[in-house]
């Protein structure tokens, strides 16, 4: 029985690895970022932390998120961090929507999440600056009229 389960598990692991290799799942990031951004929801804004920031704060991991937001070339996230920040249903959604095996999805999330958080922070700041500049210009026009 034990040998049979080990053999079945090994065959399943090998089949998954072969499938991931043939489909390019280990290196394909084409749709993964879109799915990740959809799961993460709206960009953070002043006074309106993102879903991920809320979860990180609850888990005592907000300093890690801030590091990712502020620095380029951070290391990959570890698997325990991914499990702490995402619910099982979100991980399953990421896997199914990208067409990746659970293992390939986890590997891509570990690699992609820190840089995605960095880019989301940069985009959010750019949005705040544009909004502030627009608001300031509108206020100046109103004051001059």
From TrEMBL:
SUPFAM superfamilies: YidB-like (SSF140804). InterPro entries: YidB-like. It comes from the Bacteria. Gene3D superfamilies: YidB-like. This is DUF937 domain-containing protein. It comes from Komagataeibacter intermedius NRIC 0521.
């Amino acid at each position: 029985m034990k040998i049979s389960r080990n053999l079945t598990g090994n065959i399943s692991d090998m089949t998954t690895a072969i499938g991931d290799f043939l489909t390019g799942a280990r290196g394909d990031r084409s749709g993964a970022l879109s799915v990740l951004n959809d799961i993460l929801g709206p960009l953070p804004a002043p006074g309106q932390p993102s879903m991920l920031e809320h979860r990180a704060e609850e888990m005592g991991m907000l300093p890690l998120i801030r590091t990712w937001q502020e620095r380029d070339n951070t290391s990959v996230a570890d698997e325990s961090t991914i499990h702490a920040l995402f619910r099982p249903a979100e991980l399953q959604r990421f896997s199914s929507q990208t067409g990746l095996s659970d293992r390939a999805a986890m590997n891509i999330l570990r690699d992609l999440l820190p840089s995605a958080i960095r880019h989301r922070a940069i985009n959010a700041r750019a949005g705040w600056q544009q909004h502030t500049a627009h608001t300031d210009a509108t206020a100046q026009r109103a004051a001059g009229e």
